[in-house]
Design goal:
alpha/beta, eight-stranded parallel sheet
Amino acid sequence: MKPIISPSILSANFANLEDDILMLNDSEAGLIHVDVMDGVFVPNISFGFPVIAAVKNFALKPLDVHLMIVNPDRYLKEFKEVGADIITVHYEACTHLHRTVQNIKELGCKAGVALNPHTPVLLLKDILAELDLVLIMTVNPGFGGQKFIEHSYQKIRELKAMAMELNPDLMIEVDGGVSNHNSLALLKAGANVLVAGNAVFGSADPAHTIAELRNISPDILTA
């Protein structure tokens, strides 16, 4: 199956966000990735409820909302109300992760858990069967444009092996430094959802870049 491309609007043109969302609607993107940062869990601040609600007004693709915030449980309902279709929380930010995942699902959203580069995938074994998505951070969260962490390939392979046993339908998403240069290796390692920010919005033809990321030959992936 072709991978799902989830362009990150953190790299979009905030002065003309509507046009970028309309472009994504017409592209081969499967999701729209929304990074929410609070300046506490990560050393940066992005956007909150009003911007997400505005994006939802124009978006025809599901919103893939990645919460890089402390105490995410406090805001799950609000993120659902402004348009989140997938809500991903960080393992490192949730004391009672199982409860958080259940709360997300009770809201009618798909539930994801993100892992920072230093967090082993084995820590998700007891909850993996209940997740819709696991996000492997391939850079340290908080800023766009960082260098890809090479050890991420091994983490993806480990997660894929666990998923084959416990949750074969799991979405394995990667975020950070994704481009045409490493997309094939990421997919071969086991990823099936690629978050791309600078690679998409920094290109001369973002829709074409999305299509290139998505349309890797199945023969190459199985070779």
